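Open question from group meeting: does this chain pack into something compact, or does most of it stay loose? Before anyone orders reagents, we agreed to write out a predicted structure and look at it together. Recording both the input and the output here so the notebook holds the full record.
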Amino acid sequence: MVRRIVVALGGNAILTDDPSAVAQEHALDLTAEQLIPLIKNNDVEMVVTHGNGPQVGNLLLQQLAADSPKNPAMPLDTDVAMTEGQIGFWMSNAFTKALNKNGMGQVPVAAVVTRVVVDKNDQAFENPSKPIGPFYTEAEVAELKAAHPDWQMVEDAGRGYRRVVPSPKPERIVEAEAIKPMIAAGVLTTVSGGGGTPVIEVEDGFAGVEAVIDKDFSAAKLAELVEADDLLILTAVDNVFVNFNKPDQKKLEKVTIAEAEAYIAEGQFAKGSMLPKVQAAIEFVKRTGNPATITSLENVEDFIANGTGTQIIPG
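Structure tokens returned:
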């Protein structure tokens, strides 16, 4: 029986310390190679999504630096779409290389720039929370605020300061019905990159809004809409932990929804890192009854063979 798995890649799968195109393409070559075991036995239909926080933040800076009446900076929603296309292009090339290397060159590959509908009244627009772009020192923040007084900056996990923008919840994916037959036809598809391009419904269709959708919540919605059997959220660690970095830290392996929600209530998961992943996994499991797993890219083969990682299940 063929399983359909939506794979949500973390930022470490794309961007290392070098933001150049060459370095990011190289990182994705390695990422694609690590994902091939999922589909090597022809029993999995894989759909891939990814983040774009660093890329969209860097593109915004480039846009602002070159802003002029003849070459105006693009708005955030357009920047999201631009980076979605950029990373989708890199990912398609990376998958083609990896498939050819593994004798699977017949598998078609595609990347779809994806519109994701959000509620124009979502409270996120009043409370920007999604970090984008590079880290700044406290001194650099003062200069940025002087140049861009409308920017909101927050300290991020002890690593410096980052700009934050609205992050509304995804309600539906416009292209979902177009994507499903592609998956069924065996196309290795990259969609909803960076959480997808946020749009609101208007009288004659859709209009972009300045926001960034969390890629994990978007992955959960994508997995629901394409009727995935599993949601696989890949991050920097093999398992989710409670009491993380404390003497009594505990690795979570199989966790019910009720247990995961109790841990959230205890404040076990960091807001900027593990919390949205656990929340997104819970949403998918609640809506579909299917499991969601959080693990690392490096652990993919063991996940396939032994089901390792932190799996959230109904209950």
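Observations to bring back to the group:
The chain has two domains: 3-121+168-313, 129-165.
The domain at 3-121+168-313 is CATH 3.40.1160.10 (Carbamate kinase).
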